[in-house]
Automatic annotation (TrEMBL):
It is an enzyme of class 1 (oxidoreductase). NCBIfam families: TTC. GO terms for molecular function: tartrate dehydrogenase activity. It comes from Prauserella oleivorans. This is D-malate dehydrogenase (decarboxylating).
Length: 350
């Protein structure tokens, strides 16, 4: 079969790493006998700077026709970050019910953790982030501007449907892994939404007696991720907590250049979208030295979701082979190779 893929390279290093992911996927497609039909869109902060919008008005409708979306990263100095988030990423995630943001991390060969004495097994985790509601909300506002009693109010939205489906996803995923789920909460400080989250977590945990469950306050959980990462496997959190934990998880394993993510519509009735956890990295943009591994691994997650499981496994192994070989590493991994050289080494390892 042939899959129609929308590619949105975006800004900065998003463009470089997406080119490498595409190179690797094209090689995988010819090796495994399926087709990939790419359509590229220039939706980005650069486009915003020129036209005033991140994507055309019918952008969502355009994407609907695709089997999947591969996104680089968006963000450009001078364009406020909330513009890129609310002008592109959040509308896509919500329009296509991509309510799971899946962020697996593991220590890859040839790289080392910032944590001393940790094995690859200790550091294998997956953050399941709620991706459609929660703290990322437009409800609220600024009041009494210019007065001494000025204030800002920001509301969160947690629906029963939204919380149930993400927690259920985490338990189902745990059944395919370690059978352990840890839920991030803060019900001591946040007294409406978090007790609601905890209650639903307990209800669903009761339906999975074969899966070990626990909940931790987000602060203690962050500390555990650094001190006892071996005690964590599937970690489920709200939109904000999951976002923070996944950068932390990436940082304690191989760094941001190694962490992929999928914005997944589990029902498969709309396209899912895959991207690296990292952003557009303006500090190294245009130099051709970004690490493409995160984006290549995101592309492998895309293959997995499209049902091309053997090809997905092959891409993951090719990344491991290239990293283990160690002769072609980007500067963040201690080497001197370019983005394209590491991308080609991965493609060749296929
Ligand atoms: P960032 O992830 O772009 O960069 C953080 C640090 O990690 C930088 O020092 C960067 O050089 C390094 N880094 C990141 N990816 C790397 C890679 N592949 N290889 C080597 N080094 C890498 O985060 P930052 O600086 O907070 O944000 C920059 C821009 O990206 C902002 O405009 C932000 O809004 C945007 N952003 C976009 C995201 C998206 O499109 N989903 C996600 C996160 C940030
Ligand atoms: Mg983030």
């Amino acid at each position: 079969s042939t899959y129609r893929i929308a590619s949105i390279p975006g800004d900065g290093i998003g463009v470089d790493v997406t080119a490498e992911a595409r190179k690797v996927l094209d090689r995988a497609a010819s090796a495994f006998g399926f087709g990939l039909e790419w359509t590229e869109f220039d939706w980005s902060c650069e486009r915003y700077a020129k036209t005033g919008t991140m994507m055309p008005e019918d952008g969502i409708e355009t994407l609907r026709a695709f089997d999947s979306v591969l996104l680089g990263a968006v963000g450009f100095p001078g364009v406020p970050d909330h513009v890129s988030l609310w002008g592109l990423l959040i509308p896509v995630r919500r329009a296509f019910a991509q309510y799971v943001n899946l962020r697996p991390v593991r220590l890859l060969p040839g790289t080392r953790s910032v944590l001393e004495g940790r094995t690859a097994e200790d550091l294998e985790m997956v953050i399941v982030r709620e991706n459609s509601e929660g703290e990322y909300s437009t409800l609220g506002g600024r009041h009494n501007a210019g007065r001494p009693d000025e204030f800002a109010l920001q509301e969160s939205v947690f629906t029963r449907t939204g919380v149930e489906r993400i927690i259920r996803y985490a338990f189902e995923l745990a059944r395919t892994r370690s059978r352990r789920v840890c839920s991030a909460t803060k019900s001591n400080g946040i007294i409406h939404t978090m007790p609601f989250w905890d209650e639903i977590f307990a209800e669903i945990a009761a339906q999975y007696p074969d899966v070990e469950s626990e909940q931790m306050h987000i602060d203690a959980l962050a500390a555990r991720m650094v001190q006892r990462p071996d005690r964590l496997d599937v970690v489920v959190g709200s939109n904000l907590f999951g976002d923070i934990l996944s950068d932390l998880a990436a940082a304690v394993t191989g760094g941001l250049g190694m962490a992929p993510s999928g914005n997944i519509n589990p029902e498969g009735d709309h396209p899912s979208m895959f991207e690296a956890v990292h952003g557009s990295a303006p500090d190294i943009a245009g130099q051709g030295i970004a690490n493409p591994v995160a984006q290549v691994l995101a592309a492998a997650m895309m293959l997995e979701q499209l049902g091309e499981k053997a090809a997905a496994r092959a891409v993951n192994s090719a990344v491991e082979t290239a990293l283990a070989d160690g002769s072609v590493l980007t500067p963040d991994l201690g080497g001197t190779a370019t983005t394209a050289q590491l991308g080609s080494a991965i493609a060749d390892a296929l």
